[in-house]
Amino acid sequence: MPVITPIGLDPSHPFPRVLNKSLNFAVELEGRDAFGRSSGAAIVQAPRVLPRVIRLPRELGDSEYAFVFLSSVLHEFVHELFAGMKVLGCYQFRVTRNSNLFVDEEEITNLRAKIQGELPQRHFGDAVRLEVANSCSEAMTQFLLGQFNLSESDLYRVAGPVNLVRLMQVPDWVLRSDLKFQPFNPGTPKALQKCHSIFDSIRGGDILLHHPYQSFNSVIELLEQSANDPQVVAIKMTVYRTGTDSVLMQSLLRAARNGKEVTVVVELMARFDEEANIGWATKLEEVGA
User: Fold this and answer.
1) Cα–Cα distance between 23 and 69 in angstroms, integer?
2) Most confident of the ranges 105-114, 117-126, 140-149, 191-200
3) Could you say which of 100, 178, 223, 289 would form a disulfide bridge with 251 (CB–CB 3.0 to 4.6 Å)?
4) What is the C-alpha to C-alpha distance for residues 85 and 10, in angstroms, rounded to an integer?
5) Strand (E) positions, 125-198?
């Protein structure tokens, strides 16, 4: 199989390392495989490169918009992964791991290096919760709890998919505006609506921006104009969360390259944005900020 690798559990093939919140299937088996091995259980890890929700072609669905879960496809054809064996049950499960970074800021000399060292282990922290399909057999449930060193109080039986967040993308695929709320468009203060220079508007009086009800584009425009304005000599700001593709950070980089005195306090411990923030901090240092 190009992207699916079933793992039959036996002394030479121990339980695999399961990524945090990844979709997996526990399979109960009977019989012997093509190599004559008898394995009563196997683990199938859903490929991360495949979408969890698949839109069916019009000719395969009963309606214009028809969808199927990747988990349903795997359930239907899981027997093809175990030729010569009988599949007694197939149950999806997901484990949640402790994603805290264990960093003591008072006992280290280089916070950035310490965080970078901790990040690769985030997906393999100690398990804190196990979600299984409510149809999962008691024997398999106890087996999984034992593998993750969890107790019954950490077990959650789920009726249906173990991750409903994947359904968030479906409304974007359905072109039915009559079924959706009107999109919210953040406004722009009157003082900035027709101005060519934000600095001219600021000279006319203070401007209050209330996010997210008012557009953040005004802040981006201020930084872009500052980066190119020869009268701007310094930019100082604090950055807490940014994306990996941030227009704001690009403007700060351009300002530093243009000779501005750029000082940015970047929060390296912004939860789940540590890697992106470290990357931007490094880039800012490289251009002299």
Assistant:
1) 12
2) 140-149
3) 223
4) 15
5) 127-133, 155-158
Tens digit of pLDDT for each residue in 123-150? 778 899 999 999 999 999 999 999 999 9
Distances (CA, A) of 125 to 100, 101, 152, 198: 8, 9, 19, 47
What does pTM read for this prediction? 0.74
**In terms of Cα–Cα distance, which of 34, 43, 35, 47 is closest to 14?**
43
Coil vs helix vs strand at 94:
strand
Integer Cα distance of 236 and 271 in angstroms: 23
> Per-residue DSSP letters for 214-275?
B-THHHHHHHHHHHH-TT--EEEEEE----SS-HHHHHHHHHHHTT-EEEEEE-TT-TT-HH
Q: How far is CA 88 from CA 79, 162, 189, 222, 227, in A?
A: 10, 21, 64, 63, 65
Q: What is the mean pLDDT of residues 209-230?
A: 92
146-152 long-range contacts, CB within 8 A, separation 24+: 147/15, 148/95
What is the domain partition of the chain in residue ranges? 7-179, 190-286
CATH class of the 190-286 domain in this structure: alpha beta
Name, in order, each residue with C-beta under 8 angstroms of 234's C-beta and a sequence gap of 6 or more.
260, 261, 262, 263
Question: Regarding the domain with residue range 7-179, which homologous superfamily does it belong to in the CATH classification?
Answer: Polyphosphate kinase middle domain (3.30.1840.10)
The identity of residue 64, as a single letter, is E
